[in-house]
Design a protein that fits this description.
The structure is a single chain. α3 packs parallel to α4 (101-129), α4 packs parallel to α5 and α6 crosses α7 (205-213). With 257 residues, the chain is α/β, with parallel strands linked by helices. The two termini are 34 Å apart. 47% of the residues lie in helices and 14% in strands. It has 2 domains: 7-183 and 224-250, Rossmann fold; 185-222, no CATH class. It has helices at residues 16-27, 41-54, 68-78, 101-129, 150-169, 188-201, 205-213, 225-235; strands at 7-10, 31-36, 58-62, 83-86, 132-137, 175-182, 247-250. A 7-stranded parallel beta sheet has the order 3-2-1-4-5-6-7, sandwiched between helices. The protein is built from 8 helices and 7 strands, in the order βαβαβαβαβαβαααβ. β5 (132-137), α5 (150-169) and β6 (175-182) form a beta-alpha-beta unit.
Length: 257
């Protein structure tokens, strides 16, 4: 498929899942806008590299997704937004009675509220263009709960609910809104946790992966960034034109149980 002429804005995209999605959409011909809260030479170099590799326009725009005005300004500065991928997110783990209030506020702001603000700004652009795709990167935790992740689970459930609402509001238009719900993904951040997890439990790294990190994932395999990016690309395709307001689990069977 081709996304030539389309502009994709991907939040939280200077590493990991977001960067993988940006590269996949650029490979399909989309112009891309990368984003994070930093403003380093490396961030702008990532955009330049994508442009050179795929012959598209690629830019990096700094915007802090914890701040509503910066969420909205990101879309305005992008100038166009045919595809919006809401990917930015953070995590903190603690029992609810010990959960720091500032961590709760930050997770709700970045993981959920930012989706509202970017979507509200992007929809008028999509309507004017006569086409649009919104893909919210939720989580298996948007469909299932786990202990000690109150803010994250709450935010991701909220993103799934917002996805359904936007899907219904745009159902008669050539615009779709869907959520992708990944299981455990092998990102550099997760990869770095494997040795420490093995040491903590006194087991091998392979056992740490299977018995601890992937305990809930029946496939016992990590989801790859490439698989998630491919799912997002499919949702942008004509084949997915009647898929809207839904949550697609990419989780090795975790939420099937």
């Amino acid at each position: 498929m081709t996304l030539k002429g389309k502009t994709a804005v991907i939040t939280g995209s200077n590493s990991g899942i977001g960067l993988g999605i940006a590269r996949e959409l650029a490979k399909a011909g989309a112009n891309v806008v990368l984003n994070s809260f930093t403003d380093r030479d490396e961030d702008h170099a990532l955009a330049a590299g994508i442009a050179a590799d795929h012959g598209v326009t690629a830019r990096y725009i700094k915007a802090d997704m914890s701040k509503p005005e910066e969420c909205r300004a990101l879309i305005t500065q992008a100038g166009a937004c045919d595809i919006l991928v809401n990917n930015a997110g953070i995590q903190h783990v603690a029992p609810i009675d010990e959960f720091p209030a500032d961590k709760w506020d930050a997770i709700i702001a970045i993981n959920m509220n930012s989706v509202f603000h970017t979507t509200a700004m992007a929809l008028p652009m999509m309507r004017k263009a006569g086409w649009g795709r919104i893909v919210n990167i939720a989580s298996g935790h948007g469909l299932r709960a786990s202990p000690f992740k109150a803010a994250y689970v709450t935010a991701k459930h909220g993103v799934v609910g917002m996805t359904k609402t936007v899907g219904l509001e745009t159902a008669k238009e050539p615009i779709t809104c869907n959520a992708v719900c990944p299981g455990y993904v092998l990102t550099p951040l997760v990869e770095a946790q494997i040795p420490d997890t093995a040491k903590r439990y006194g087991i091998s790294e392979d056992e740490a992966i299977e018995k601890v990190i992937l305990a809930k994932q029946p496939s016992k395999e990590f989801v790859t960034v490439e698989q998630l990016a491919g799912t997002v690309l499919f949702l942008c395709s004509d084949a997915a034109a009647q898929i809207t307001g839904t949550a697609i689990a990419v989780d090795g069977g975790w939420t099937a149980a």
